[in-house]
Amino acid sequence: MLQSVADLSISYKIFYSVLLFSWTVYLWEAYLAYRQRKVYRSTTHVPTELGNIMDTETFEKSRLYQLDKSTFSFWSGLYSETEGTLILLLGGIPFLWKLSGVLIGRAGFGPEYEITQSLAFLLLATLFSAVTGMPWSIYNTFVIEEQHGFNQQTLGFFLKDAVKKFVVTQCILLPVTSLLLYIIKIGGDYFFIYAWLFTLGVSLVLVTIYADYIAPLFDKFTPLPDGELRGNIESMAKSISFPLTKVYVVEGSKRSSHSNAYFYGFFKNKRIVLFDTLLEDYSPLNKAGEPGLEPQPVPEHSGESDSTENKAKPKNKKQGCNNPEILAVLGHELGHWKLGHTVKNIVISQMNSFLCFFLFAVLIGRKELFTAFGFYDNQPTLIGLMIIFQFIFSPYNEVLSFCLTVLSRRFEFQADAFARNMGKATELYSALIKLNKDNLGFPVADWLFSMWHYSHPPLLERLRALKGAKQD
User: Fold this and answer.
1) Is 336 a known ligand-binding residue?
2) Predicted structure pTM score
3) Is 264 helix (H, G, I), strand (E, B) or coil?
């Protein structure tokens, strides 16, 4: 009896410690965002140092855009934190678990089918998250992004896309989760090793197939046509022994005018993906309302990107980068590969994953962790994963996230230096300015907000490093 009371006391301490830490993190994030909003509100004129980089009109647009985003983030974050707290206080997790048991019971499955009940729980939980998050996503897309000229979607396209994402996610999440739970169940004393190896294999497979089989379900990928740009990209890749096999242009303009570029693949099978909004000569957003513009070899669009599905908006000035600037951006990206940043990130990720599974194996037998969250009679493995990975590890996750942010900024400076050493300092300098303007990035940041959040160095710091190299 005394042991039960002691366990219950420990459970209460665990529960309220989790709540306290969650709100502490939220208040810390809110404080940082408040500091940054003060910067947005007070910096109404282009600083002298930026006089030759950003015009007054673009500076004001970026200021208002980032201020709107920050305000939206505050309210959506407050809602999310409140919702999570109410779910915990009102016993939402055990309620959903019992509901999952009722549903599978109607299908003829008893409580001994824990994995089946876990999948039903996961489906309901992700459905709840998708439904409650939908109004916020709609507001962000059709109010904030729309007002500032980025949204290219219609509501019909957005909703169809959301349903498709949910279905694809479930098709991946449910089988992977069922196999992981099965491995944990039958793995014996060393199940954490098998679980880690399984998640490692899944992550490598997903990285390999994502751009070839998953991403094309949502966006049109077209090989970059033969020409000067493709030839220069292939030559640059060859010069650093990057095993490039394909270069794609993805039709990002049907969703947003934001731009991006990335590479993927393992071993001798690397591919580069360029958003059409990154390419000055390929972006459909540069052609709308410009009848005098000479036609370029724009990749054919899929039927989903007709005017009934999305809407290219006329621009007063060209978006994207010219070919030398694109090569400089890719020089930066390839620098990440050449300098081993990708491999280092994978190694760090997998070391962290192994550590978490090991600690999970140590903690999963502690009944008080389950009773803290309303599970008095059973200890489902999926619930254990959720409690330990999401709640118990949250302090560790915050520290790790900050350390990775610091490391990421270091990697970005190194990749910039790599592009600089390739003789592309001038082109990368101008590309960074153009991309900042196109995406309405605000170049002035509070030092504490920047230190905690920015995985990329602030624009001015990157430009100073490149400018020094140019002068040298």
Assistant:
1) yes
2) 0.85
3) strand
